[in-house]
Each structure stands twice: as structure tokens, then as C-alpha cells.
């Protein structure tokens, strides 16, 4: 019995590493599906106001005619009240449209996750390059700061910080707090890559040629670490989405009436036996978003940073 393997991606002779990486990624079915799911959620988040207006409901608008007051506010109709008026059903008791709340919840959840990821990547890349290239006391100080941040009980601090903060922008605060504890992981990856690059021939040639540290870091070192950073970034995003959902689930994230997936899941627990769709819909969105980003990140890591891949 013989087995066949998928044909290798056809790329022009002399293609660079990025062309080879794109060809390999296009060959993988899991990447195509993951990209489609990620694009769907990004479009959903970006167009949340438009989508909810097309559905005819805002996330804070009550529809008392869609719930039965004699059955504890249970949605009327099958599958949690799914109908032509309410595409994903309604929230028990209040009758708020689930489609409008899900798309606006995607906007809040992905905004926090992507913004926190941007903070993590920028801060971690800058710290990692500085530590790896300059070495000495700079490396010692930054490395100890990485160790201190990673050893700190971040979840407890996040819960405490979000609990005591009053009258602040919750989205901005969550973004800053989540991003505060994520940068050391990126910094360690970048530091290791920088240590292996700073003694390469082309870096030595640039140094001998009179290039300053800033030019070397931006022109020679940064492009060399960009592949692992991109792969690591994609793997960070699902963790950020899950962290935001966990904080909202615990009641210390964004506050009602602002919707988020974690908050909706927390509220649906009380109705899981009478209206399971209220739990299934936001949970499915959270699961699919995390799974899609994770699969995409795994593929990018295998292609752009093969040394860190599983054997």
C-alpha cells in the first residue's frame, strides 16, 4: 500500500523566504479555513453597528414581545426565539436581540485582544532587541524585569485592579492591564533571536561600515526577528481573547450594558437549562475565534520559525 503526500507548492526559482512561506501557507487547508473564520469575525467586529442596524435592533434595545412573562421571561418560539425578527434569538427576560449583542460583543472582545497584543508585541520586541544587542548591564536589567513580570501573579492583579477601578474607560483599562503582563514572552523570543543575529557577517559589515546602533537594529536585526515575532503574535491573540472573556465572566471586565462574549456567557449560566441557545451562541463564537487564531498561529510558527516546531 502506498501513500501519497500533497504536492509541494510551486514557487518561482529564486524566491525569497517570504514567497516560500506564503506558498506553503496557501497549500494548507487549515490555514484557509482559519483565515476565513478570522476574517469573518474581524468583519463582524468592524461592521457591528451596520450589521445590528440591518437586523433592526440595537444591543441595548428591549423587546418584551419576544419573551413570555408568564414563564420567567423565556424566549417565545424554538431555539431561543430565533425568527425573522431575531436572527439568533433573544436574551431571556429582557428580550434583547442576541445577534446585535454578539456582533457588538465581538467588537469589544477583539478590540481589547488586538490592542493588548499590539502593546505586548511592540514592548516585547523593543525590550528583546535592546537586551540581546547591547548586552551587559542593559541585558541584565531587562532580563530581571522580564523574570519579575513573569513571576508576578498576573491574574490576581488583573482582578484586583479591575475591581477597584471606578469611573474609568473599562476597555482602555483592560487593554493596558492585559498588555502589561504579556510582553516578557515576546521579549525572550526576540532576545534569543537577536543574540544569534548580532554576530552575523552582514551585521559586522554594517558595523564596520559606520552604521550606528539604530540603523543596525532597524535595518539588519529587526527584519531577522520579524518571522518569529509574527508567528508568536498570532499565537498570543487567542490567549488575549480568552483573558478578556475570563475577566468579563468574573464580572470585573466591561460592564453592562456594554456587551462582551465573556459577560454574555456568565449571564447565560442561569438559563442554560431553560434556554441553552443563550449559552451556545456566545460560547461558539468564543471557541471558533480562539481555535481559528490558534490554528493560524501554529501554521505560521511552523513555516516562519521551524526551529520552534514540534518534532
What does this structure look like?
The chain has helices spanning 17-27, 29-46, 48-55, 98-134, 136-151, 154-164, 170-180, 183-197, 201-208, 213-249, 261-268, 276-304; strands at 67-68, 74-75. Mean pLDDT is 84; it is low at 1-9. The protein has a two-stranded antiparallel sheet with strand order 1-2. It is built from 12 helices and 2 strands, in the order αααββααααααααα. It is 67% helix and 1% strand. Helix 8 packs antiparallel against helix 10, helix 10 (213-249) packs parallel to helix 11 (261-268) and helix 10 packs antiparallel against helix 12 (276-304). The chain has 311 residues and is mostly helical. It is elongated and about 80 Å long.
Please render the helix and strand layout as text.
Layout: H1 17-27, H2 29-46, H3 48-55, E1 67-68, E2 74-75, H4 98-134, H5 136-151, H6 154-164, H7 170-180, H8 183-197, H9 201-208, H10 213-249, H11 261-268, H12 276-304
Antiparallel strand pairs: 1-2
Helix pairs in contact: 1-12, 2-4, 2-12, 3-4, 4-5, 4-7, 4-8, 4-10, 5-8, 8-10, 9-10, 10-11, 10-12, 11-12
Count the DSSP helices: 12
- The total strand number stands at 2
Q: Look at the helices and sheets and give the structural class.
A: mainly alpha
Low-confidence sequence ranges: 1-9
**Any idea what the radius of gyration is?**
24 Å
Mean pLDDT: 84
Task: Give keywords.
single chain, disordered N terminus, 311 residues, mainly alpha
Outline of the structure:
This protein is mainly α and 311 residues long. The chain has twelve helices and two strands. Helix 2 packs across helix 4 and helix 9 packs across helix 10.
Amino acid at each position: 500500500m502506498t501513500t501519497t503526500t500533497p504536492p509541494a507548492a510551486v514557487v518561482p526559482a529564486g524566491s525569497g523566504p517570504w514567497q516560500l512561506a506564503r506558498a506553503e501557507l496557501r497549500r494548507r487547508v487549515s490555514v484557509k479555513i482559519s483565515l476565513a473564520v478570522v476574517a469573518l469575525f474581524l468583519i463582524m467586529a468592524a461592521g457591528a453597528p451596520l450589521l445590528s442596524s440591518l437586523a433592526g435592533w440595537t444591543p441595548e434595545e428591549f423587546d418584551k414581545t419576544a419573551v413570555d412573562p408568564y414563564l420567567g421571561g423565556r424566549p417565545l418560539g424554538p431555539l431561543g426565539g430565533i425568527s425573522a425578527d431575531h436572527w439568533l434569538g433573544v436574551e431571556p427576560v429582557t428580550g434583547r436581540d442576541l445577534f446585535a449583542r454578539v456582533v457588538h460583543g465581538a467588537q469589544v472582545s477583539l478590540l481589547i485582544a488586538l490592542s493588548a497584543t499590539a502593546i505586548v508585541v511592540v514592548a516585547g520586541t523593543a525590550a528583546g532587541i535592546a537586551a540581546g544587542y547591547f548586552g551587559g548591564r542593559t541585558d541584565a536589567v531587562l532580563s530581571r524585569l522580564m523574570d519579575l513580570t513573569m513571576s508576578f501573579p498576573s491574574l490576581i492583579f488583573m482582578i484586583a485592579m479591575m475591581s477597584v477601578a471606578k469611573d474609568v474607560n473599562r476597555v482602555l483599562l483592560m487593554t493596558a492591564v492585559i498588555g502589561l503582563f504579556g510582553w516578557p514572552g515576546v521579549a525572550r523570543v526576540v532576545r534569543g533571536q537577536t543574540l544569534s543575529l548580532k554576530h552575523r557577517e552582514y551585521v559586522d559589515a554594517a558595523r564596520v561600515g559606520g552604521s550606528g546602533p539604530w540603523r543596525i537594529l532597524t535595518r539588519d536585526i529587526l527584519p531577522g526577528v520579524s518571522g518569529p515575532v509574527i508567528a508568536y503574535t498570532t499565537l498570543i491573540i487567542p490567549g488575549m481573547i480568552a483573558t478578556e472573556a475570563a475577566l468579563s465572566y468574573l464580572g470585573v471586565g466591561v460592564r453592562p450594558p456594554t456587551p462582551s462574549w465573556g459577560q454574555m456567557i456568565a449571564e447565560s449560566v442561569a438559563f442554560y437549562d431553560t434556554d441553552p441557545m443563550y449559552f451556545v451562541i456566545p460560547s461558539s463564537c468564543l471557541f471558533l475565534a480562539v481555535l481559528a487564531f490558534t490554528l493560524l498561529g501554529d501554521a505560521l510558527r511552523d513555516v516562519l520559525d521551524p526551529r520552534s516546531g514540534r518534532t
